[in-house]
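// run 5 | inverse folding | seed 20
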């Protein structure tokens, strides 16, 4: 069993505004600017030496697009799997069950939405206070095993803007 595990929690990038243009919120896509910013942020992750073995993503369009941009930034390219546990109505217990299925992978990215992704981060860290993720923000939490038996360790947390500033 590998371990420790590196969990990368990622909030989707800048998306189109809610409203009449997108009556089905699940289909709301990233904006062009959101895609561009996310690509630059992923280059920053790569420059930090981050690697990912698999990406679990909310099935909503904006999260899936974010996951695809993240995957494209890594070599080898990680596989992407839709998991309902990362959708806004998903549960932490369902997410842990999904993570257990990937226990052979030591670096797992999770792409989701606020406030859900911030609540997941809090649970993984053993705190009741949700952590606020701006669009495109990424944090790394290390856990010794899946499922985690105790709080993980926050290694770093960066905004999309900070990641975009990382130079080679």
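// decoded
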């Amino acid at each position: 069993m590998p371990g420790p595990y590196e969990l990368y929690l990622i909030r989707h990038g800048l998306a189109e505004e809610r409203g009449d243009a997108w009556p089905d919120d699940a289909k709301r896509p990233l904006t062009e600017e959101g895609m561009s910013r996310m690509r630059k942020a992923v280059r920053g992750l790569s420059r930090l030496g981050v690697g990912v073995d698999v990406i679990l993503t909310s099935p909503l369009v904006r999260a899936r697009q974010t996951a695809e941009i993240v995957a494209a930034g890594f070599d080898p390219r990680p596989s992407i799997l839709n998991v309902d546990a990362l959708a806004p109505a998903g549960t932490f217990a369902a997410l842990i069950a999904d993570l257990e299925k990937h226990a052979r992978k030591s670096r797992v990215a999770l792409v989701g939405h606020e406030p859900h992704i911030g609540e997941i981060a809090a649970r993984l860290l053993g705190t009741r206070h949700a952590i606020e993720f701006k669009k495109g923000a990424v944090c790394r939490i290390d856990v010794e095993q899946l499922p985690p038996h105790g709080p993980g360790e926050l290694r770093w947390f960066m905004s999309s803007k900070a990641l975009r500033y990382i130079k080679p």
